[in-house]
Structure formats: C-alpha cells, structure tokens
Amino acid sequence: MNLELERLELGPWPMNCYLVRCPASGQVAIVDPGADPETVLQSVDVDAVCCILLTHGHPDHVGALDAVRKATGAPVGIHPADAEEWELQADFPLVHGSEVELGQCRVGVVHVPGHTPGSVCLRLGGEVIVGDAIFPGGPGHTTSPAALAQSLESLARHVFRWPDDTRLYPGHGGSTTVGAEREAFLAFLAADHPADLHGDVTWR
What we know:
- This protein is an alpha/beta fold.
- It is 25% helix and 29% strand.
- It is built from six helices and 14 strands.
- A six-stranded mixed beta sheet has the order 1-2-3-4-5-6.
- A hairpin with a 5-residue loop joins β13 (167-170) and β14 (176-177).
- The longest helix has 13 residues, at 145-157.
- The chain is globular.
- The relative contact order is 0.14.
C-alpha cells in the first residue's frame, strides 16, 4: 500500500512541510512543521495525527513544532544527534534502519549526516523525504569542509544506491529524482575542488 504525500509551503523562506497519510487508516504523520502552525493544523484531522517526524533540527524546520505538538498531542521523532544539538525534546529516536508505523504502512529511516549531524531521510517506498540533505542540483548547505565530505559520503552510501526513479522531496523547493542527479553527482565526486569548499555547493 502506497502512502499519500502532501506538501505544504510554509514561512517566509519558504520551507516544505509534508503530510504523510496512510490511505487505509487515515492516520497522518506531519514531517517538519517549520512555520505557520495554523496552516498545518487546518490541513489535517488533528485526531488522525499519530506522530511528528523531523528530518533535522534547524529552526526553519521546527518553528511550529511546539504549537503542533500541543494541538495534536502527537509524539515527536528526531535523530538523537540533532535532538541534543538543538535541545529538542523527542519522544522517540529516528535512528538508521528503524521504521515508524503509520497505520498499515511503515516509514523507513535513513541517517544521512552532513547538513546536520542528525539529518535523516524518510523512505516511503519509491518516494523519499530528504530534508535538506540534497536538492535539485546539489547537496544541502554545510558548515565546514568536513561536513561537506560527510554529506557526500552519506549521499553516495545511501541516496545514490536507490533506483533512478526514486523521487526525492527536499526541505525547500521542488522535487527531483535520483536519476536526474546521478550523472552530475558522480562528475562532482571525480573533479578536483578547493580544500576549503563548503557552504552552498552545486554539482556543476
């Protein structure tokens, strides 16, 4: 059974909040409530929200967390590294290889550190919510050369081992696919780069 995915654009940036719904049970997971809690709550049946999942702990992805948590009473999941880094209270950990039950479906957790220490991707079969780990045309922002190297290693180990038709839903902007990014990613890995390269990087 395929999970249903809905994207909400929130806040002044804007950023993407996702609603993941099990069509059989109607249960919903809210992913990255970054802003505009009224919009998020008006988009769901509050009683159907079974959990709140965070791809990472940056403020633009958790800005509405407290309000949404209070309104729904739903437990919150985040990777322990980001819970500690941003002092976020979690009810359960999102660790690599774990699964979150959502009605009759499951959401797989893939740890992809680099953008943040606890960045995760959330696998919904052939669709993946990737947070800020990867965007069309490049990796997510990194704060140091070591973080960029870690990000590239994470993407190579996990994301680029998925089938080319896997659709990636990032934390900002539109979606892409593994296949659309693969050639440029491999060319980037094979090229020479300045030793201090990091920040906002593109494949080309």
